[in-house]
Specification:
Blueprint: E1 2-6, H1 11-21, H2 25-36, E2 41-45, H3 57-61, E3 65-68, H4 80-95, E4 99-102, H5 104-112, E5 116-119, E6 125-134, H6 136-139, E7 151-157, E8 159-163, E9 169-173, E10 181-186, E11 189-194, H7 202-211, H8 213-218, H9 225-240, H10 245-251, H11 255-258, H12 260-263, H13 265-281
Parallel strand pairs: 1-2, 1-3, 3-4, 4-11
Antiparallel strand pairs: 5-8, 6-7, 6-9, 9-10, 10-11
Region (Disordered): 1-25
Domain Glutamine amidotransferase: 47-205
Protein name: Glutamine amidotransferase
Amino acid sequence: MRFLVAESEPPDARERRRANVGRSSGETFRDLLLQLAPGAEVERATPADADDEIPDRETLAGYDAVFLTGSPLHVYEDTPEARREIEFMRRVFASGTPSFGSCAGLQVAAAAAGGVVRSMGKRREAGITRRITPTDQGRAHPLLAGRAPAWDAITIHNDEVERLPDGALLLARNNETEVQAAEIRMGPGVFWGVQYHPELPLSDMAAALRRDADDLVEAGLVRDRAEVELQSALLDALAREPDRRDLRWRLGVDDELANRDRRSLELRNFIEHLVKPTMAGRGR
């Protein structure tokens, strides 16, 4: 298998994340994909970067899958970075190569295909997003095959998809964010995406909470930085010992979040149910 991971982060955000957790978003994706598909060739691209050439349709068609990472980029702002990301995604759709995105990756795909993305205003989802449930279409969709009737997931975002493109399938929602999972089609391209982060280790989310502590206090999700540190410490501990019942109880989570294989289920389903059949159809 030959995969391309597109880092949605602008260069400064990418370096801040490396300083914060030791890896960029694309490097985190790469590390998990190498575990899910041993022997795969995983390359990275940085389409938001002004000095990085956006791959053309023919080049993108040479990959078996394209993955879009999360990012602090606001795709509804008319910036060079946002325009480059949207152009990249339109080329991915035109190539016919299956694609998957988390968080901002879902938002980029929605905007590229004609949907609308907006700021959440004073609302936030950070750390653990609760009680995600499939829609009627989601219950039968292979992206969510094997998911519990309701599940929690790792997340951090303050933008959301306001309106999916015409013809898109809404697959999951919760009380905070209407579009938690979706399928989007444009031309020959098929995209599966989620608003949460199935690729992230729990320790990466703990670091993200510490990084954004002041914003979380301002948003009213916690009273002070000490509460952020407590939540982050619990996530770090669960990352080290995912089977500890006391940590699961204190965080209010089960296998759907604590177990890495369950947490990354959507990525496994994407590879098994979309990438491999598409490869077979292309004679690969």
